[in-house]
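the two lines:
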Amino acid sequence: MARAVTTRRKTINSLAAWTVGLLIFFPILWTILTSFKTEATAIADPPVFLFFDWTLENYSVVQERSDYMRFLWNSIIIAGGSTLLGILIAVPAAWSMAFVPSRRTKDILLWMLSTKMLPAVGVLYPIYLLFIQLGLLDTRIGLTIVLMLINLPIIVWMLYTYFREIPGEILEAARMDGAGLREEILFVLTPMAIPGIASTVLLNIILAWNEAFWTLNLTAAKAAPLTAFIASYSSPEGLFYAKLSAASTMAIAPILILGWFSQKQLVRGLTFGAVK
Amino acid sequence: MATQHARSAARLMMAPAVILLLGWMLVPLTMTLYFSFKRYLPLRGGDLGWVGFENYARFVTSSSFWPAVQATLIIVGGVLLVTVVFGVLIALLLDQPIWGQGVVRILVIAPFFVMPTVSALVWKNMFMDPVNGLFAHLWKFFGAEPVSWLSEAPLFSIVLIVGWQWLPFATLILLTAIQSLDSEQLEAAEMDGAPALSRFFYIILPHLSRAITVVVLIQTIFLLSIFAEIFVTTQGSFGTRTLTYLIYQRVLESQNVGLGSAGGIYAVILANIVALFLMRIVGKNLDA
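prediction for all of em together
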């Protein structure tokens, strides 16, 4: 039951919450604003907040100078590809664990989770070496495979928690009506599983998009995604605030939008069902 | 009930995921273990033979080991403290009825979706720069001397950057936990005259203990391996060289693979200790 709340109290709480929210969001807001300034306005003293001549110049400069589209394309291929590949492999696994559980299901799930805990730096050299030997260094396919593998445990887990919520009675009813395993999967389970799969896809695209250990260490010029593109602004270009801001805004905008859609799935996906 | 047919089909459907993850875990780990017992310098002679546990001993006795442990502890501990304390406070605030709750929620969560290289660079240049950064302007406005954050307070700066990135995660999980609290219990306490502070310490905080544990464990695992934030800000200088960064430098920068691999094995063991606790909580939840 909701407690009666006085308007006064609600106003105070709202003020506090909005202050906190804007404070946390401020670095992003500031970056977006700065991306529309000229370099001179960007470092003006005192700083200019809203009232300046808005310009789109930085965006075209960044695009021309550093070939943003290529990095963006790499990010899309790598994040999308690794998620898709992961889903293809994880759906059957999560499916069978949710609907045909055996005594070992729990152990397998926990073991999968444990592979996620493997510190990347501990296997950096072997992967690096394997990549050189297999000719995968600085290729999109190599990075796609690695990102698929590091996110596979999360994908399996998320799908498993979603699939488990599908009531078993429906399956029994379908079986009574004479549905075989194939019909059961195609016509009964799939439609009910779509929302869960969609959220899993969303969260994993975000994770892959922002991954910044393997993408920095396994790429050079050809396959570098946006994480590496931004890292190349480290110096001295980073001192050109307006261009840095434009590049940053272009790198985070697609995922910020996706992120807002998937905020509910975040908890489930990242706590492995430990918090509901 | 599952038939024999369904069982074998299930095993077949699980096989690709299990085999891939098994390979992903075993192959590189075995290689790291192998290198860790060798003197292996790819650019200076390559494989120079077996050396037993020498790399393990050298890794922990090198002069950069303890500073790295210290930097790691400060960064991980600092970020945990910041995210849990502020996470609880913000979650409590967001749980109250407020105007525009959805929008505020989005504002608070947003940093989580910013890629690490972007947040590190934006903070480093646009906020912490001693000449043109916003903090410098703010300091000057109040008549103070601008601070060169990343060289004068490097660990604090890294904690600030990483804390900002992880605060949304902690807040969101703690908020989810608070919302599952039975409000009647709180009302009863309120009617019995329990002041707000004791309601917090005797009802809300105990209820949150599990969520806090989960936040701490999951974040610890991720924080132990933060890399990009250091890579684009200080490159490990000014005492910000964490264990992860030290191992990275040994392996890829100085190409001392044997030594770095021994460090890698230490990192794996450390992460597994934390993971063990996490698994027990997750495993318990799986039965419920």
